[in-house]
């Protein structure tokens, strides 16, 4: 299947659900991105600041760019003028920097907090207690140029579908708990960014509102 056919198929799977597709275009060419764009895809995900910035500059301005990868504080300034959603916020230090750079750009930047579940897959993310205590802080409301709109997580890379489902459902449970316990002007928990090429069907069943799909759409990535 080519890019257009795959997008059509995934969008059919999503129809009637409350889930958006983030087309993960990291390492992929502008030509491939435009193939997706030309059949209506507008949300694209990247995981490297330099690549994201370059693609933002050269591609159509109505694309919503999502930063899905680990973000270093010293690079936030490059994406703060345009980024639509930052998926993997994993520390208060990073959040404070995003807030500062958003303010400089007179923007409010939407963010997701990354929860660390699958131990082997990623060393990044916060645990439940860290997320809860960050969002419960009284001083949290001072971050007026960010908005926490949900959680992002990656499941263990395993063929055990029950394990993946239980990890995803754990994130969903946490989201509901935070919704009822953490209230602030800059918190509006509605998004659950779970599911990639290998596990998005499970994520959909567990209530994903954003699946991040790369290789299924664009083919395997070649890293130099
Ligand atoms: C690369 C990446 C994806 C997409 O992975 P595929 O398996 O190619 O769909 C999703 N989320 C994050 C955070 C990624 O880095």
How does this structure look, described?
It is globular and about 50 Å long. The chain starts with a helix and ends in a 6-residue tail after the last helix. An eight-stranded parallel beta sheet has the order 7-6-5-4-3-2-1-8. It has a single domain, classed as Alpha-Beta Barrel (TIM Barrel). The protein is an alpha/beta fold and 224 residues long. It has nine helices and eight strands. Bound molecules: pyridoxal-5'-phosphate (PLP).
Question: Layout of SSEs?
Answer:
Blueprint: H1 3-14, E1 20-24, H2 30-37, E2 43-46, H3 49-58, E3 64-67, H4 76-79, E4 85-89, H5 92-104, E5 109-115, H6 128-136, E6 146-153, H7 161-181, E7 187-193, H8 200-205, E8 210-213, H9 215-218
Parallel strand pairs: 1-2, 1-8, 2-3, 3-4, 4-5, 5-6, 6-7
The structure holds pyridoxal-5'-phosphate (PLP).
Pyridoxal-5'-phosphate binds next to β8 and α9.
Structure keywords:
224 residues; alpha/beta; eight-stranded parallel beta sheet; 9 helices; binds pyridoxal-5'-phosphate
Backbone shape: globular
Q: Give the ordered list of helices and strands.
A: HEHEHEHEHEHEHEHEH
CATH superfamily: Alanine racemase
Tally of separate helices: 9
Distance between the termini: 25 Å
Per DSSP E runs of 2 or more residues, the count of β-strands stands at 8
What class do helices, strands and sheet pairing give? alpha/beta
Number of spatially distinct domains? 1
List the ions, cofactors and other small molecules found in this model.
Answer: pyridoxal-5'-phosphate
CATH architectural category: Alpha-Beta Barrel
Q: What fold name stands as the CATH topology? A: TIM Barrel
- Look at the structure and give the CATH class: Alpha Beta
pLDDT < 50 runs, ≥5 residues: none
Strand order of the largest sheet: 7-6-5-4-3-2-1-8
Roughly what percent helix?
A: 25-40%
Radius of gyration: 17 Å
Average pLDDT works out at: 96
Beta-strand percentage range: 15-25%
In this structure, how is the largest beta sheet organized?
Answer: 8 strands, parallel
């Amino acid at each position: 299947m080519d890019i257009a056919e795959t997008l059509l198929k995934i969008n059919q799977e999503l129809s009637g659900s409350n889930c958006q597709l983030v087309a993960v275009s990291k390492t992929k060419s502008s030509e491939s991105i435009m193939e997706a764009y030309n059949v209506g895809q507008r949300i694209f995900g990247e995981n490297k600041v330099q690549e994201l910035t370059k693609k933002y500059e050269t591609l159509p301005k109505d694309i919503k760019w999502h930063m899905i990868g680990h973000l270093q504080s010293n690079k936030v300034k490059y994406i703060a003028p345009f980024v639509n959603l930052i998926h993997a916020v994993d520390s208060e230090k990073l959040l404070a920097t995003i807030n500062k750079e958003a303010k400089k750009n007179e923007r409010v930047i939407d963010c997701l907090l990354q929860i660390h579940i699958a131990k082997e897959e990623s060393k990044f993310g916060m645990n439940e207690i860290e997320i809860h205590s960050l969002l419960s802080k009284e001083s949290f409301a001072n971050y007026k140029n960010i908005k926490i709109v949900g959680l992002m997580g990656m499941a263990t890379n395993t063929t055990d579908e029950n394990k993946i489902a239980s990890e995803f459902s754990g994130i969903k449970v946490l989201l509901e708990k935070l919704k009822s316990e953490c209230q602030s002007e800059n918190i509006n928990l509605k998004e659950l960014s779970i599911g990639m090429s290998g596990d998005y069907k499970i994520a959909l069943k567990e209530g994903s509102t954003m699946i991040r799909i790369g290789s299924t759409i664009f083919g395997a990535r070649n890293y130099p």
